[in-house]
Please model this.
Amino acid sequence: MTDVKVPGFPESVADGTIITWHKEVGEWIEMEEVIADIETDKVVFEVPAPVSGVVTEILAPEGAVVLSAQLIAKIDENAMASPAPSIVESKTSLPEADPIDESPSTIPSTAEQKINPSAKKLAQEKSLDVTQLKGSGKDGRILKEDVQNVSRSAANPASAKPSVFVDGDRAERRVAMTRLRKRIAERLVDAQQTAALLTTFNEVNMKPVMDIREKYKELFEKKHDTKLGFMSFFAKAVTEALKEFPEINASIDGEDIVYHGFFDVGIAVSSPRGLVVPILRDADQMTLAQIEAKIRELGGKAKDNKLGIDEITGGTFSITNGGVFGSMLSTPILNPPQSAILGMHNIVERPVVEHGEIVIRPIMYVALTYDHRIVDGREAVQFLVAIKNALEDPVRLLLDV
Model:
């Protein structure tokens, strides 16, 4: 019999929540196959099976809070796989309960109810009446997540409620906030309460960058096997501006100001769990191709919940691009303990005056939110102007002028 334990968490992570069991008691699992996912307030950890064998015990149900190195399951290397759907609970595990009906439920067929097979199987195991649920999938289809939400509520009624309430056509869906969402909320509120936030704005004529992309995008992609986007230009412009204004690359630690001698730029990306900010380490030393390739890699990991702790911690400055969602203008909130964040927005053709004539140019509004405790308004404005100048004359980035 081999123990399955929670992976060792970094010092910055106190505990985690089991969000998914990929195997059930009685099922066969291969060595290194993922048996469970554990969500922390930073990333999702995958728990690989240490050996091949049959899962004989699951000691912590979905929704349980677990600690580093805690025993959560057992695998018998010598057993043969056999159907055994029941989960063996530990003495400390919370009991299963039906939040809708205490009597045994009858699960309708898929012809009577739109329900995924995995959701139907889980509902049968949990003795839940799916007719009382309103699915969150397409056309109201009940997903496994919908059943898990109700099951999790039953396991911990003090902190959660059934996820769906139906009163005729007036339905409400209640879902427990993820640990990441809780952490995001805490950090954003903390930033607003502790930092002296101020935002300055400017506009950038994106035509020079767009002309370069149009001229070289095919050659660039063919040579570097990655597309040439806008973010690499912004990342390079930011790192050059940070060298000129070191206080914007600094942070406050107690009563001290820490000036960072490196440039780790965070790029905010969306993930199924919420907004995450993976880091481009030593961005000033990276080429445009390296930046684009790294952003694509980190973005893919974010979508698949594969980001590691070291990939989302320790940034000195952040960039967020609301323009991909159509945002014209916004005031981003900085990511503590960083002292500033740059907000990009959508590109719109607007009339501008050049050499005394009105012309149409692709314009992007940019915003810099900064901590006024450490950054003065003059430096913030000049920093944003430096970024504007670099983007409107990209040759400056190549010539380092």
